[in-house]
Amino acid sequence: MGLATTILQSRAVAALASPHGVDRYLELVNPMWAATEVRARVVDVHRETTGEHPVATITLQPTSTWRGHRAGQYVQVGVEVPGARRTTRCFTISSAASAPGERFTLTVRAHSEGLVSKFLVERAEPGLVVHLSQAQGDFTLVESPATPTNNHLLFITGGSGITPAMSMVRTLLRDGYDGHVGRRVTFLHYARGPEDQVFADELASWADADNGVRVVLRHESAGDPRFSAIDLARLVPDFREVDTWVCGPAGLMELVELAYDGSPRLRTERFKPPVVKAGSAEGDVVFSRAGTQAANSGAPLLEQAEAAGLTPEFGCRMGICFSCTARKSEGTVRNVLTGEESSLPDEEIRICVSAPVGDCVVDL
Ligand code: FES
Questions:
Q1: How far does the centroid of ligand 1 lie from the alpha carbon of residue 43, in Å?
Q2: CA of 310 to the centre of ligand 1 (A)
């Protein structure tokens, strides 16, 4: 939009449009016009797998405000689910790195409890407009044809964790990655069975091509070995010295982290905070606005609030979007992602990743 964008983003226009903001008016004229917000129109929905937790790949045409993404990044997607307020969740982008305003894809598995994932997989159709954040995250590719090294790159993924690795290898292949100059990729993926295997045809074509990409699929239902350091060492003997990206269920991530024994070559991406063992915590949790008090279970405060019958606002449930922020007036909380504890009074905390340590009072 150039000049038009500059004018629309100016303070004078923002003041005129106050209190709703320029984008509220542009959206009324055309949902794909935006000065600062990012929105996208669904242009294609491709069903990858069916079954209990079906998977679909959704192609999005973003507004010109989309700044593009690096392979491996995720985006927050907000949808207006009928009968519910706008709900936001994070999804990793599965297509190769995109330039500003360029189309990209999300590959989404419908979880039984997942309001947004179910809506996108079961009901998204071309024409639907969704709200987006800019791309986020540091779980990204360091290798590119512009900065080639002779590194061996290793991707270990499980279930839906395949998506960032797909984006990275697709980017390498699209941009002219050439296995003949000594670089190679090992792509190790764990799935329940062939019927759950997303991108099966594309993975088979990578495996058949002479491109330096080795694809190893492990299917539980076929009796393939589960992840172990011994099995990995058979495939990649010096794996602790190899740049590795791992993404998948918590159990897989923990085993891989143990196998790498603190190696700085390992990069991780988690879908959810690590599971916190409840039951060992002490003290009481008070939700002051609701006037309820319950024994501290040790779970993150969002879960404890929901168990107490409250319905706090939330988005990603993994400490990224800040939509669950609430004020803690007393007590100590531990960040379940980092283990860091904080006892500051009257502090804003993300309740989805904050577990109380002893008595705690939260303004909910
Ligand atoms: S729900 Fe996103 S940070 Fe808590």
A1: 28
A2: 16
